[in-house]
């Protein structure tokens, strides 16, 4: 029996939907075969966990137990020995540092005294130089006064000599 015309578009829509549904099923199957690796990964994870727990688990426990024993032995025996050695060495080191500190202090005192002595010597030399300079300046002033006095006397003699010469010349000029 032929299909009525008004049902043909509905039927064609159903066929198109059916084809789309089949295509989606094919795409889902292709995806699960090519891209969905969850089952393989879950198997690998289970294998890894099993290997780790069985083989490494006991080894890790032994290592941790050995480490714990080593720590206890260190705390009980080695640490007190180290503390005692450290205290002995620290006492000796403190004594050496105090001796070095005393030596440095004495050296600084000597240097300070030496600087003070040098400063005193320098001050004495400066005072001596100033006294010598003042004496030299007084001597120079005295010499200058003597030279000025001699110059004044020489000028007076020359004036007298020239005035006598003028008088004698005046005698001859009057003729």
TrEMBL record:
<dbReference type="GO" id="GO:0030133">
    <property type="term" value="C:transport vesicle"/>
</dbReference>
<dbReference type="Pfam" id="PF14942">
    <property type="entry name" value="Muted"/>
</dbReference>
<protein>
    <recommendedName>
        <fullName>Biogenesis of lysosome-related organelles complex 1 subunit 5</fullName>
    </recommendedName>
</protein>
<comment type="similarity">
    <text>Belongs to the BLOC1S5 family.</text>
</comment>
<feature type="coiled-coil region">
    <location>
        <begin position="87"/>
        <end position="175"/>
    </location>
</feature>
<dbReference type="GO" id="GO:0031083">
    <property type="term" value="C:BLOC-1 complex"/>
</dbReference>
<keyword id="KW-0175">Coiled coil</keyword>
<dbReference type="InterPro" id="IPR017243">
    <property type="entry name" value="Bloc1s5"/>
</dbReference>
<comment type="function">
    <text>Component of the BLOC-1 complex, a complex that is required for normal biogenesis of lysosome-related organelles (LRO).</text>
</comment>
